[in-house]
Every structure is written in C-alpha cells, then in structure tokens.
Amino acid sequence: MQFRQQALAKLQSAEELDLPVRFARPQGWLVLCVTVVVVAAASVWAVTGSVASTVGASAVLTHGEGSYILQSPVAGQVTAVVAQEGERLPADSPVLRVRTADGDSVVRTVAAGRITALAATIGQIIQTGANVAAVEKVAHASDPLYATVYVPAENAATIPANAAVDLTVSSVPTQTYGVLRGHVKAVDRSAESAQQIAAFLGDSQLGEQFTKKGRPVAVLVKLDKSARTKSGYKWSSADGPPFALTSMTMASASIRLADQRPLDWLLP
Fold this sequence. Notes:
By secondary structure, this protein is α+β, with helices and mostly antiparallel strands. It contains 7 helices and 14 strands.
C-alpha cells in the first residue's frame, strides 16, 4: 500500500512536467515505412497480378478419329492371316480367313485404317465376336497426329480453349530434344469409362490404365506444326528429334490453366 501511494504521488508531482516528450527512434520509423510499402505492394499485386498454374495428366499420340477393335463375325479356325501389323488398308480389306462349318469366310476391315495389333494366329479357334485386330482409323500417311490427354474430371472445367500444352514423349529424350508443343482443341463434356477409352484407342489395357484413379475427361490437343523439324511438329528445342513420330506413343502432358489473380484465392 505504501508503494502505491508513492507512485501516485510521483505522478501528481509537477516537477517532471518540463521533461521533453520522447518520440520514436529513426530505426523505428524506417521499419514502419518498409512495412507500409510491402503491404501496399502486396495489395496491388493481389488485385492486378496473375499466377499461372498447370495440370498434368497422361496422354497418348493418336490420329483424331481414334481406333476400333475388329471382331470376327463368324466362329471357326483361322487358316490365314492376310494383313500385317503396321499395314494401312482401305475399308472392306481382308484381314483373316476363317474356316467355318459352312465353308471359308473372310474377316474384313470395317473402315480404312492402319493395323496396330493382330490378336489372331493361324490355327487358332475363334468364336463369334472375338477380338482379332485393332485398327487405327487413318486413311492417308499425311493425316496429322493429335495428343489425347486424359485429365482428372475435377480439373477439366478449368482448362481454357486453346490452352498451351507441353508434351513429354516417352520415345524422345527430353534433355536432348525438349518437349512437344501443342494447344487444346477440344475438351469432352463428360468423363469416360474404361470401355469407352478402350474402344477409342483399340486397347483394353490402356482403358484400364487411364481409369485407375477414376473416370477421366478426354482433352484433344492439336500439335503445333513446324516445317523445320524432321517430325513436322514444333519442339522446345530448335530441331526436335531426328525421326518421325508414330501413333499410339505414350506421353505425359502439362496443360496451362487460365491465369488467376491472387485475390481470387482469398474470395469465396
């Protein structure tokens, strides 16, 4: 109690009223000014600045119309395999000859294309509806390649039209030749099942591979062309690889999404 009375008496004393007021030191003013400048700059950047983001996904090089699985319309024993893998055939071309109970029959292509896989061999017994070949629907050697990217469904809606795409091609050393350039041509409206992907690519294993983490959305990417490269397409390096690209080559894609303002992340 005694100490409290002494403190009150000291405050009421007029002896120290003439002491100068102590202002902030120059170092304190400097820290305050820097803080104000930083906060102001961050506020301007949050409103006027932009941040780029990307989404990565698996991809495969294809021709735009995809492939189909050729099935045998008859049951019997394969007596001849007429077509060869890699061969380009017109529509209604013979692929297999099958001996049936009613005589010999020929399995023919449904549409013009290139044989990418043959599942039947001479002497094999096949049933009606058996898968005998995978045919990529391409009529001419000059038909351009596209990349089909299977993007997680939750990211598909954020992909803008004509978005830039970088493709790391499995058969091309990235450190030497860089990445393949392209732009988004179309984004599907709905997610695809393993069966739908298999039907388009003509490969059931790829259908299962692309749906391991859920049903994805297919994004069609048009490859940028270049007359200066051997492949005919644009690369991040000047020349690209010294060989042509082939369809059904696996790749990984990085798609650039629409730029966002930092302020958008804070707003609901």
